[in-house]
Amino acid sequence: MSDHADRATVTERAARAGARIAHEHFRTDIAVETKGEKTDVVTEADRAAQREVVDVVRKEFPDDAIVGEEEDELKAVPDTGAAWVIDPIDGTNNYVRNMRTWATAVAAVEAGEPVAAATVLPALGDTYTADAETAYRNDEPVTVSDETDPERAAVVPTIWWDRDHRDEYARACEAIVSRFADLRRFGCAQASLAAVADGGVEGVITNVAANPWDTVAGVHLVRQAGGRVTDLEGDRWRHDSKGIVASNGEVHEEVLAAAREIERTT
């Protein structure tokens, strides 16, 4: 088995292990804390799930860097060497509201580029994975939508805008509803990107410089499912890019145009 295949196996195993811990605490009387903004919440389930993911990874790859949302792990992806990017519960606001759309996401990265990913949505019963060749949902290959008509496409504004940037959120919504058939918002960036990979929606946009744990696994899913992911300039997206524009490829230019509208000045 190749090193990339080994990493793909461990991403799935680690994501499933973390998701199992998070799911055990789901819809229980768990304490909720805030980290900054009133909507930036965290629970002990986040921390426990991340520790479980790290334990699984460390057993197989003890010397690799760990990038994780919680606790004292790295907060940026190194541009050299091997690393693991972990989000123990993406969509914690959904989680604490007892809503099912949240995920545990793990990505394996080499020299800053994802090589394997797993996004587990245990409350929905779906596991998305991507290796060096293909993306899967519950072990069945998936591909992005083949929709070419923006007026039949659905697009998601994702990554929450701070309180003093809600005008940008409003412009994102306006740009979407004026160009596309409909708007979706799942409250979970990894679920949104998985939906692009699975053909459920045609695009995802934000102008925010997103954290790697919110994006890297999902970006790999989209690409391996045949989609396209760029920054706001239309260049290939990286973990340190500002903004994210993910699409099925067929309507990418229109999705990119919508994303660029977010920061327009009047």
Q: Main attributes?
A:
D-Maltodextrin-Binding Protein, domain 2; 266 residues; globular; five-stranded mixed beta sheet; Fructose-1,6-Bisphosphatase, Chain A, domain 1; seven-stranded mixed beta sheet; alpha+beta
Care to give the gist of this entry?
The protein is built from seven helices and 14 strands. By secondary structure, the chain is of the alpha+beta class.
Polypeptide structure, described:
The structure is a single chain. The protein has 266 residues and is an alpha+beta fold. It folds into 2 domains: 3-142, Fructose-1,6-Bisphosphatase, Chain A, domain 1 (2-Layer Sandwich); 150-263, 3-Layer(aba) Sandwich (D-Maltodextrin-Binding Protein, domain 2). Helix content is 32%, strand content 24%. It has 7 helices and 14 strands. The protein has helices at residues 3-25, 44-60, 92-96, 166-179, 189-197, 216-224, 252-260, and strands spanning 32-34, 41-43, 65-68, 82-90, 103-110, 113-121, 126-130, 135-137, 140-142, 154-157, 182-183, 203-206, 228-230, 244-247. Strands 3-4-5-6-7-8-9 form a 7-stranded mixed β-sheet. The protein has a 5-stranded mixed β-sheet with strand order 11-10-12-14-13, with helices on both faces. Strand 5 (103-110) and strand 6 form a beta hairpin. Helix 1 (3-25) runs antiparallel to helix 2 and helix 5 (189-197) runs parallel beside helix 6 (216-224).
